[in-house]
Amino acid sequence: MIELSSFHASALWSHIVACYAATLLPLVVGLPPIIAIMESVYVMTEREIWRQIARYWGRLFGIALLMWAIGSIVLIILYAADPGRFTRHLHGIPGLALTLLMTPLVFGGGVFLWRLYTDWLGLGRLQHLLITWLWMLLSTLSALKIAIGYGLMDNPSGAYLDPGTLQVWIHDVPLALLNPAAQTRFVHLVGSSYLVAATLVLSASAWYLLRGRNVQIARRSMTVAASFGLAAALSLAVLGDRDGYAGSPGQQMRIAAIAGEWHVQPAPAPFVLFGIPDPDSRTTRVAWRMPWLLGLGAMHSWRKPVAGLDELEAANVERIRRGLAEFMALDNKEASSRAAGSNAAKVGANPDLGYGLLLLRHVRNPLQRNGDEMTAAARDTIPDVPLLFWAFRAMALLGAYGIVLFGVAFWLASRRQLDRRGFLRLAAWSLPVPWVAGALGWLVSEAGRGPWLIDGLLPITEIQATASEMAVAAIAYTAIAGLFAAGAILSIRLVRLGPDGLKIWPVDSDATKKY
Q: 230 CB contacts (<8 Å, ≥6 apart)?
């Protein structure tokens, strides 16, 4: 009989890596392009102030890189020690995944020391600029690795389930790497990291201007952050949902839950801007709909209908029934051994087996199921609708706030009116906004997968983890929280010191000097 004994541990690691990506990774990915822009201006203009600006924000990047490097090492050690680690169930590209993780880590160690002491190691302007741009490219590899992993979990393109061992194998590596869900997540992860970094520079610069400190550095930094942040915020709005989200049943279920739609919406499908989703009555009360928006956003078409939760659940009942038939066939040991001995036979041979395994939540032996248990298993495929509904709208609202904030910042910078104190106060207090939005995005991602570890292939059939697995997970969560707190404390101290306190730039003799 097939057993699923440690999927819950893998789910814990999915949440841990999500926390890591939401807290420690954004500045490591987002700050390098901003610093590269500043250094590029220095190379083109040969104005010393731009070199000092790049050196100062480079020190802040050094703190973020140190926390990220330590966190990566800690997670790798704990990941290897956890018996329920994710790689126990997914095989085929572990070497590539390790390379994508370790390459920027190793390179980052040297860059961190170089950035921390800001000595530039005697390098010329152009040489230093090339290294900065190179790090910008390398830092995105960590985001790419995370995007590929979670893309496979959301849409297991190029993967199949081994019916003999219940392991997921990648049989088509190019197809897995070019997974539309992974591409979408990569664009969204990089864009959100850019927005976080731009907000940090904008907020810290606004704090300096409010206090009349480092005015020349703060104005120039704020101008770069305004332009870069506006581009990042607009790219998230335009490209954040690009491709892949309607490519699998699980993604369709997530879209329907986010939209709060229980029935098929004919094309062009409207989007519920506001409503009160009620899972008990399976309706969304007080629904305010905007025409066409759901069809254009989810399907990128005004001609395709969008499936509702009821219809998707009914389709899953049929898939569970087919998966149960596959499960019954695999109960024969000889058939299982033959399947386990032939990779060709396994690829695509049991496409609905994972749905049949959903019954393990409700009955010890799926062969002893009844109609009510099959209906309950299908209902499990519906995620927490109110949670996704409100988390997505809160994330979108914060994203809209970011567009307005950076739009106003760009307009004021273009008119050289960044001294408006009302806006400076708003910018200074906006620092946590992109982090909160990013956390909400990861919440939508993880909760939207519902009962699946890997959508359609591996269900999470146990909700209890062993004591050792919970201990390792607790250590990992604590390590991430501790590193984030340490990085925040060091960054705040660095910002309070400022370029003048660090002797990077002399205190401005004329705080009102224009540039």
A: 403, 406, 407, 409, 410
Q: Tens of pLDDT along 227-275?
A: 999 999 999 888 766 544 555 677 888 888 998 988 887 778 888 888 8
Q: Residue written as tokens 């590209």? A: 93
Q: pTM for this one?
A: 0.87
Distance CA 261, CA 132 (A): 47
- Both tokens assigned to 385: 């609708």
Phi, psi dihedral angles at 163 (to 5 degrees): -70, -20
Alpha helices in 82-124 (DSSP H): 94-117
Cβ neighbors of 462 (< 8 A, separation 6 or more) are 4, 5, 7, 8
Q: Of all helices (H) and strands (E), which one includes residue 135?
A: helix 125-154
Give 130-145 pLDDT, tens digit per residue. Answer: 878 888 887 888 788 8
Sequential DSSP letters for 38-80? HHHHHHHH--HHHHHHHHHHHHHHHHHHHHHHHHHHHHHHHHH
Nearest to 46 by CA among 131, 118, 124, 119: 124
Nearest 5°: phi and psi at 143? -65, -35
Rounded to 5 degrees, what are φ and ψ at 511?
-70, -20
What stretches of 139-203 adopt beta strand conformation (E)? Answer: 159-162, 167-170
| Angle made by CA atoms 430, 436, 437, in degrees to the nearest 5 | 95
User: By CB neighbour count within 10 A (0-12 exposed, 13-18 middle, 19+ buried), where does 418 fall?
Assistant: buried
Distance of CA 463 to the CA centre of its chain: 24
What angle do helix axes 7-23 and 125-154 make, rounded to 10 degrees?
150
Task: State the pLDDT at residue 463.
Answer: 47
Instruction: Write the single-letter amino acid at 211.
Output: R
Contact 43, 125 (CB under 8 A): yes
Q: Output the six-digit token pair for 240.
A: 């954040």
167-170 vs 159-162, strand pairing mode: antiparallel
User: Strands (DSSP E) along 126-278, which ranges?
Assistant: 159-162, 167-170, 271-278
Q: Of 293, 295, 292, whose CA–CA distance to 306 is shortest?
A: 295
SS (H, E, C) 309-366: HHHHHHHHHHHHHHHHHHHHHHCCHHHHHHHHCCHHHHCCCCCCHHHHHHHHHCCCCH
Own/partner pairs for 502-509, CB < 8 Å, 24+ apart?
Answer: 502/56, 502/59, 504/52, 504/55, 504/56, 504/59, 504/118, 505/49, 505/52, 505/56, 505/214, 505/216, 505/217, 507/213, 507/214, 508/212, 508/213, 508/214, 508/215, 508/216
Which amino acid is present at 37?
I
Closest C-alpha among 126, 121, 132, 120 to residue 46? 126
Continuous segment of H or E residues that includes residue 284: strand 283-290
Q: Which residues pair with 306 in a beta bridge?
A: 265
